[in-house]
Every structure is written in C-alpha cells, then in structure tokens.
Design goal:
The structure is a homodimer. With about 350 residues, chain A is of the alpha+beta class. Chain A is about 35% helix and about 20% strand.
Chain lengths: ~350, ~350
C-alpha cells in the first residue's frame, strides 16, 4: 500500500477507528493521486474509491497496483453493498468540516453506520508537514513565481491596465506550470488599499504604487508572493508605512522556526503596527501546499506551533482606505532553527 | 427592500420561519449582489451581513439603502450580539446542504438557536426561474460563446495542441466577458472518449475529431456549449454515432417545454441509445445560471418538471473508450410551448 494510506491506517488504529469516509477531493488527491469526483472509503480490509462513469477511465489510469485501491462505478454499487462496506466496524470516521449536515444524515442511513465519529482534520494536520517531493514542487512553484515577477517588472509600463498586467502574469504561468494558484491580484493607486481587490481597468500612472499578489501551481502545489512597488519614485507619505511593513516582515522571518507560536508571532506584528497607529487587519500568514490557504494559520485566532517542514506565508500589510496599501509576502519553509524563504524577490524599495 | 429579499421574507413567513442563516455565497450574491466572504442573517426585523475587514470597503460600495442590509465587521460582533440576533425566533432556517456538520453544531451553540430547521434548497429553487435581467445576461453569454466558437473554428490548424486552443478561447473570453464559466475542454482524437478530459499537449492531426466544451460568464451568469467537429472529413465509423447523438439532441429540444418531465426526457434518449448498443453515461442536462451546474438536473435520478424561464442544457453524448466520443450541447431557455436555444452554433457536420 502507498505510504500515505499506510500512515492513515496506522492513525485510524490508534484512534480505534475501523472505517473512514473521505470526501474532501484534496485529501483524496493527497492520499491517492486521484484527481476526480468521488469518495474514498477505508473499510476494515479494503481501500475503495467510488466515482462515476465520467471519471472511471481517468481514475484507472492514475491508480497503480501498489496503491491497493479498488475502483467502483457508483452505478454498479447496490444498496446492499453500501450497507456491507462498514458492517463489522464499531467506529467510522467522517470529515465533519467537509461534509454537509445533509450528507451526514444521508451517510448514517446509507452505510448503516453504528458510530459515526468526527476526525478533527487528521489528514489536513498530516498535510501540514511536507515531505521531500512536496517541498521540491513548492520550491519549483516559488522559483517560477520569482522569475515571473522579474519579467513582469520589465513588462509594466504606464498606461497599461491592472487587468492587462494580471493577464500577462497568467500567460506566463500557463506556459510553464499547471496554472494559477489563485486569481492574480494587481492593484494600483488607491485600489491598493483593498487587500483582496480585483484587477480593474484602471491604468498605471507615471507616479504610482502597485501591489501584485501572485502564485502558480506545480504538480498540484502552490506558491504565494506579494510585492508592493513604485513607478518613478517612492512617495514620501508611503515610505514610513513601507518601512514599517518591511521591518515586520523581516522580523517575522527571523522568528519563524520550529516551535514558534503563531499567536505570539501575530501579536508582535500587531503591537508594532499599533505603536504607529495602524492595524493588522488580516492574518499574518497561512500554510501553503495543495491548497493556497491551508493549515497552519498564522493569526491571532490560531494558537499553534510551527514545525519543521511546514510551508507558510509571512505577509504583514497596512491599508489606508481610499489612499494606499502596502503588503510584502513570501512563502517560507520552516526549519529546526529558522526558516528558508522559497520566494526570493527583492524586498527593498522597487522602482520601475 | 429589494425584490429578492422581499420574496424570501414572504417565503419564510409561509414556512413559519422567523430567522434564516444563509452561507452559500452564490445565494448571497443572488439576493444582495454582494460578492465577498461572509454570512447573511435574516432576523425578525433586520437583514444583516457579517464579513471581515478584507471585504468591508467592497461590500459597502455594493449595497444600496434600498437593499436595507446592515453590514458588520465580524471583529465588532460580540458573543452577546450573536446570542441576540435570533432571540425571539422559534424556528431558524439553515442551508443543510451547504453548511458542514461542524458548522451546524457551532451555530446552534453560537446563536443559541431553539429550533434549527432545514430549508430544502428554497433559494436554489427560486433561482431556477430566471427573471428578465438574468435572461439578458444568459443570452449575452451564449451569444459571445457562439461568436467565440466561430472564431476558434477559423483559428484551429493541424499541429496546434489542445492546450493552445483552450488558451485561445480563454483569451477571447477574457477581453469580452467576466471570464470562463468553467475550465474549457478541448479534446482531440481518442481523447474525445473522456467526457471530462483535460486539454493535453496532443497535437491536432490532419484527419481528426475534436470536441470543445466551452462557456463564459457575463455579470455572473454562465453559458455552456459543446460541439464535436472534424478536420478534413468525417470518418465513416463516426458518422452513425454523430447522427444518433444529433438526432437525440434535436428530439430533446423538441420535447423541452413547460411541464416536461426530466426523467422521461432522459429515458427517451437512453432507450434510443440502447437500441444501437450505446449508453448515456452522464446526465442529459443541467440548469445554468450563476452556477454552471445548478438545479434543475435533467437526468434519470431527477424526477421534476421543466418550467417556463428555466435555462438548462441539452447535451446527449456517446463515448467509446480508447476510440472517440461525440457530444452536442446547447444552453436553452424553456418557454410555455417549447424552448429557445440560446446557443445557436451549427450542429450538422462541421468540417474544418
């Protein structure tokens, strides 16, 4: 059996769980490489993937004998089959954060489950720690993002629209990767004050501030980087804000390491911003992997510890409504004694 | 109050529901035009939207006084506020197909809800019937899709890859619409046997079969069209399959009207395919609106009636594993006595 399924079966044993239903397609892809619509059942003895006729061919071409996964077309699974899958299972786990309340009720009926137990993100927690192959994909995605940013700095000229720049980034990624990790954010002028704004038809001015938040996917793994930069020169009123954001981004990088507490890390930035009259209005960071936002979350709400080989963002930002915003973000890998920035683009004032 | 919220409040009254929590962002956008992350609460007297600081500015610029929506930053909502929202409500509705089991448990605690009741897709059911403005957007999205298809027929040349063609379609849409309604499917040769295949680097041959499934979004509303066509000539072995699919697509169009039963419609196509030794391995159609797949579903599992001003696809297909596949799909509007095809591209043999 493949190593990830084997790990999960050991975990189930330790939790006294004889069966498990997995619905989250990202978790299924993580465990099996299957990228389709369907559900994965871990019964006492078998790993079963139930899909429909649209995906059967594709799924068969993905799984190997080594995976030990039996693939069914939902059309061929009878009412009795469903009732038999977990027949001798006392406890069957389910993804309580993923399946809907309606699905929960349906499964209890359909699978005749004795004791349906919450699994508290067991797979997501395992996904936080990246193995060698995952790290290679993340590094590659970040490297291409650095290259793309370098290219886009040379591409941008006053008169171009935010949308046009976002399209050019998408084109760059498309020819080199599996595509975007998320919709590219390109904002300019007063639009930069919206942390999650959408690229508009606003044209780049001769003296302008621009924020780009960008990332791509390589073999299913994401990158995430933001830079705020300037056309012509850095306006005096922006300099102190930029410096404050950068200072905190660098300090956070210095604090990111195995054992660091996510709430404390966030609190430190928040406090420093408050000293100067600003707020940290979003998280300081988030895990990056098969999803662009995944555990662990680095925020005030999240009280957890960073661990070796987690990959997270470090992205402080300050936004002044109607005026401008500054965010600087890297994707970094946590190590025993520090961290390695996987995105490596310039962070001091960038002027084009 | 805006008409859609007013409709929903009337519906709630008739269901003896004093409060309602809406989580599905598409339903929220349908009711309020808000396109952000947050939840919509309909309490006894107020419409409340709770979002976070990332979206506050954008939400404020969307809602009008006429909507009568109070917008909160989640940061400013206290534990007491949550407990007070539904204080005098006997029954509070929730979207049981949308919220997770974990969220369901959390809400009961957080909102101190007496009786949390399932709403059985009330908003989705209303969304099935399109109003005049929605129809205008759907027509526009379909018209641009026809134009794009015409353009792409002139663009395709042997030697181009499936991916390259998909990119060109995306580019076309990007400059004219809000973007793709779904990832464009471009398949050629034996790849056409996978109904939901992903464009690959396979190059178009001099004698080839090509299937393109494409759609865009206009003001949030989708289009969906598929054509299977040929390079050079139509191979003799494919002709009978193409003719059979086309015959059934035309017959279905003739049957699509107010009152028609979705299961019977599907059964008719299925039976005709079986006569010739083929299967209908996917649905015959699905609703199209703010989502590319939405209610009503036209399939064997769905026993419902088409109604005036529903917009659905009509997409029979036959797939022969390892050899080829044929699908012909239009987006059509149901009327009292028939239907109007919103996508109007040629359906007889297309040879490029």
């Amino acid at each position: 059996m493949n190593a990830k399924l084997q790990w999960l079966r050991n975990k189930m044993s330790s939790l006294d769980m004889q069966g498990l239903i997995i619905n989250n397609p990202i978790n299924i892809r993580y465990l099996t490489n299957i990228d389709a619509e369907g559900i994965l059942l871990l019964t006492r003895k078998e790993n079963i993937y139930i899909t429909d006729s649209r995906y059967i061919e594709q799924v068969h071409s993905t799984v190997t004998l080594f995976d030990e996964i039996i693939v069914y077309d939902a059309h061929d699974v009878s009412k009795d089959d469903y009732e038999n899958f977990f027949m001798f299972c006392e406890n069957v786990g389910f993804e309580e954060h993923y399946i809907s309340y309606a699905k929960y009720k349906e499964y209890i009926r359909k699978f005749k489950i004795n004791n349906f137990v919450e699994t508290e993100y067991i797979i997501e927690k395992q996904r936080m720690i990246k193995d060698e192959e995952e790290l290679k994909n993340l590094e590659k995605a970040c490297e291409i993002t650095d290259n793309c940013f370098k290219y886009i700095l040379s591409y941008i000229k006053p008169g171009m629209t935010e949308k046009q720049i976002a399209n050019e980034i998408e084109e760059y990624y498309k020819t080199r990767t599996d595509g975007l990790a998320f919709e590219t954010i390109v904002l300019s002028g007063e639009n930069t004050s919206k942390p999650h704004g959408i690229p508009s038809n606003r044209k780049i001015q001769k003296k302008d501030i621009i924020t780009i938040d960008m990332g791509c996917k390589v073999n299913g793994y994401c990158s995430d980087m933001t830079r705020t930069f300037f056309v012509g020169s850095v306006p005096e009123e922006i300099k102190p804000v930029y410096d404050l954001v950068l200072k905190n981004q660098i300090q956070t990088n210095e604090q990111y390491k195995d054992g660091a507490n996510t709430r404390l890390l966030t609190k430190m930035v928040e406090n420093d911003f408050k000293l100067y009259g600003y707020d940290l209005i979003h998280s300081l960071g988030h895990g990056v992997g098969m999803e662009i936002h995944e555990a662990p979350y680095v925020s005030y709400q999240s009280d957890t510890q960073l661990k070796e080989n987690m990959v997270v963002t470090n992205e402080p930002g300050i936004y002044i409504p109607g005026k401008f915003g500054v965010r600087i973000e890297d994707t970094v890998q946590i190590t025993k004694f520090g961290c390695i920035s996987l995105t490596k683009s310039e962070k001091n004032y960038i002027i084009i």
